Amino acid sequence: MKKRLYKSRHRKLCGVCGGIADYFDIDPTVVRLIWVVFTLAAGGGILAYIIAAIIMEDDPGIIDMN
Q1: The whole model's pTM is what?
Q2: Which one of 4, 5, 16, 18 is most buried, counting C-beta atoms within 10 A?
Q3: Paired residues of 57 in beta bridges
Q4: Which residue intervals of 1-66 are DSSP H helices?
């Protein structure tokens, strides 16, 4: 079975960090901390997050309630 990268169902903002954590099977808090450090150190974290939020698909297991 091929592993796919999706936005997480357990979202704080857009689900990007949670989706990356699910993909690599690590704790989402670790990914969020790495994102914060990357944002503060290099400044590109916000742009990378926005691009990922646009490009990544929602998890197909998410039921749309609208």
Answers
A1: 0.71
A2: 16
A3: 6
A4: 16-24, 28-42, 45-55
Q: Are 6 and 57 in contact (CB under 8 A)?
A: yes
Residues 6 or more apart in contact with residue 65 via CB below 8 angstroms: none
Which pLDDT score is estimated for 66? 46
- Two tokens at 4? 């796919």
Tell me how crowded residue 18 is: count the other CB atoms within 10 A of its CB.
22
The angle at the Cα of 14, spanning 17 to 52, to the nearest 5 degrees, equals 65
- Tell me how crowded residue 17 is: count the other CB atoms within 10 A of its CB: 24
